[in-house]
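Justification of computing resources. Each target in the renewal requires a structure prediction run like the one illustrated here; the chain below, 140 residues long, is used simply to show the kind of job we budget for.
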Amino acid sequence: MTSWDIQPGEVLSVLESVMGHVGGEGSGEGLVGCIDRMETSLINASSHAKSVAVSMALAEFAEHYFAFSGDMVALTGSAIEGAGEATVHYNNGNLEMAAESQANAGEIPPRPWTPATRRSPVATSPSSHPHPAPVTETGQ
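Resulting C-alpha cells:
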C-alpha cells in the first residue's frame, strides 16, 4: 500500500458530493428522496385503482424495486464510509488500516428479508384496496 498517493481533501470533497446525490433518510433529496417519492406514488396509485389485481401488481413491483434500490443505498453508503475511513487512516499514516478500510468498502450485510417475504407498503396500505392485503408464505 506504499504506492498510495492521494489528496485527502479532494477525496473527502468527492465523497461529500456523492453523499449529496444519495441523500439522507427523511431529507427528501437524492436517491433516498426518489425512493420515498416512489413509495408515496405507488401507495396513491394503488389506492386510486381500487383493484385487488392492480394493487397486487404494484406490490410485486414495489418489492422488486425497493429491494434493489435499498441495496443501492446501502452499497453506496458502505463505499463512501470505507473510502472515507481509508482516507483518514492514510492521512494519519496508518497504511495498514487504510488498506483494511479500503478492502471492506462496499460490503453490506445480507438483507434480513427477501423480496418474496417482504410485504410492500403498497400491499399493506389500508386504503389501497377494499379487501385485506395478501399474506406472503411466511405469514408476514
